[in-house]
Design goal:
The chain is an alpha/beta fold and 231 residues long. Helices cover 39% and strands 17% of the residues.
């Protein structure tokens, strides 16, 4: 209920202040579990994807979101799974992995940012920067398809005046990538190939958006500091 209400509110706000363009190359399954993996360019990405992605998502979120009791309760209501991005709290991440597996086992969809944080430019998976290895491994071990997604434009929302210019935002949802079977003879090689396949799809989806909407270099992700210099 909380997720539905918040996603509807977010959809209304984005529709009012932005021009949201959604491209779905292949509709995600209405039932069954999968992992939605997206690039991450701003703090506005989770509410945008929650509002416009065709399925409800159980998000992975940083532990810092759960520091205060009120925020911990709110994000728990949104079915956010806390995780330590830096791997310092092994017990916490074991608990997170357990909850992720339970989510998939119950037929739900997980939302993951495989970059491990907000990235732009050469540090982004859109420019083929290395992603965290956990996505490929988790998908492989749990036999969960990965649905890749690319978001562009939300980095402009850090600048206040863009909210009054109906700035364009773009989302593209790619085709599901099925992990190799667990009975693969050479697991390391198979997993490496799967990792590369996942890494290659994000630049390809960005290029698809660029061609469809004739996007310029200025439309591509930039840091909040770079955006603040724009008029």
């Amino acid at each position: 209920m909380c997720y539905t209400c918040c996603s509807l509110v977010a959809r209304g706000i984005f529709r009012l202040f932005c021009r949201v363009h959604v491209v779905i190359l292949e509709a995600p399954p209405k039932k069954g579990s999968f992992i939605m993996a997206s690039n991450h360019i701003s703090h506005f990405d989770p509410p945008l994807l929650s509002a416009f992605f065709p399925r409800a998502l159980d998000w992975l979120g940083m532990n810092e979101l759960f520091k205060h009791p009120w925020s911990a309760r709110f994000f728990s209501w949104l079915r956010v799974i806390p995780i330590d991005r830096f791997g310092k709290k092994a017990a916490s991440n074991r608990h997170a992995l357990k909850k992720m597996r339970l989510s998939l086992a119950s037929g739900r969809a997980l939302g993951i940012f495989p970059e491990g944080g907000i990235r732009s430019g050469a540090a982004s998976i859109l420019e083929q920067a290395p992603m965290k290895p956990g996505l490929a491994s988790f998908s492989f071990l749990n036999q969960a398809p990965v649905i890749p997604c690319v978001v562009l434009g939300t980095d402009r929302l850090y600048v206040k005046h863009t909210w009054f210019r109906r700035t364009p935002l773009w989302i593209i949802v790619g085709k599901a990538i099925i992990p190799p079977t667990l009975d693969a003879t050479n697991r390391e090689e198979v997993l490496h190939c799967f990792q590369k396949k996942l890494a290659d799809i994000f630049p390809a989806l960005q290029q698809e958006l660029r061609e469809r909407f004739q996007l310029s270099h200025d439309d591509l992700p930039k840091t909040a500091k770079e955006r603040s210099r724009e008029k």
